[in-house]
Amino acid sequence: xxxxxxxxxxxxxxxxxxxxxxxxxxxxxxxxxxxxxxxxxxxxxxxxxxxxxxxxxxxxxxxxxxxxxxxxxxxxxxxxxxxxxxxxxxxxxxxxxxxxxxxxxxxxxxxxxxxxxxxxxxxxxxxxxxxxxxxxxxxxxxxxxxxxxxxx
Length: 152
What we know:
With 152 residues, this protein is mainly beta. It has strands spanning 14-15, 39-42, 53-59, 66-69, 78-84, 92-101, 104-110, 112-116, 122-130, 134-140.
C-alpha cells in the first residue's frame, strides 16, 4: 500500500540543465568542464505542491579562472549554497569563488551561503581556483526557475 505522502518525495534526482537558463548550454555557452550535471533536488515539475526549486551539483578541480553563470535577476528570493568536502574542517571550501551582487564583487573561500532578495541583480559567478571538489546548490523560493534574461 502506498503511503499518503509518497508523492512528496524525490528519490531519483533528474538532470535539470534546461531549467537553468543562465548557465552552460542553456545560456548558449559551453558548461565549464569542472561543473557536473545539475540535478533537481526539489521542483514543482517533480512535486506539484512544491513552492521551491532546488538544484545540486559538484564543482571539481580547476587551476584556471572559470566563469559559470551570467548576470541576471529573479522575481523571487534565492539562496546560493556552497559546501566544502573536508569532513575535518567543515569551513574549508577548498576553492575561491567570485560572485557579483549589484556589481559589487564578493570573494568566497569558506563553506556558506548567500541570500539574494527578489529583484537583485547578481552574477557573474565563477571560480578563481578549485583545489578540491565541493557541492553547489541553488534554492529558489519559487516552484520553477525563471530569470529576466540570458545574457553572455
